[in-house]
Amino acid sequence: MTRMHLLVLYDITDDRVRAMVACACEDYGLDRIQYSAFCGQLSRNLQEELMLKMSRLLGDKAGRIQLVPIAADDWKRRMEVINHA
């Protein structure tokens, strides 16, 4: 089963739903990189499973959830600045 890098980004107005979506991302082993953004590696099947779960959590509440797969070569070329001050 091939795992691919991905980003999960969301904008959800309901605090409770937003927290449950964050927990779902953590349950799937993704790392929080910003308040409403996670990254990690999942197989295609797990990506679909996670999106289905998050869709159910969102229900009829206002919001948007995106899962963006990223090719390995593009992931290697990413740039980031981290300051732990």
Secondary-structure map:
Layout: E1 3-12, H1 15-27, E2 31-34, E3 37-43, H2 44-58, E4 63-70, H3 72-76
Helix pairs in contact: 1-2
Protein described:
39% of the residues lie in helices and 34% in strands. It has a single domain (3-76), classed as Alpha-Beta Plaits (2-Layer Sandwich). It is built from three helices and four strands; from the N terminus they run E-H-E-E-H-E-H. It has helices spanning 15-27, 44-58, 72-76, and strands at 3-12, 31-34, 37-43, 63-70. Helix 1 runs antiparallel to helix 2 (44-58). It has 85 residues and is α+β, with helices and mostly antiparallel strands. The termini are far apart. Strand 2 (31-34) and strand 3 (37-43) form a beta hairpin. The chain has a four-stranded antiparallel beta sheet.
Short description:
With 85 residues, this protein is an alpha+beta fold. It is built from 3 helices and 4 strands, in the order E-H-E-E-H-E-H. Helix content is 39%, strand content 34%.
Features:
3 helices; Alpha-Beta Plaits; single chain; 4-stranded antiparallel sheet; 4 strands; alpha+beta; 85 residues
Query: Cα distance, first to last residue?
Result: 39 Å
Oligomeric organization of the protein chains: single chain
Total tally of structural domains = 1
Strand content: 25-35%
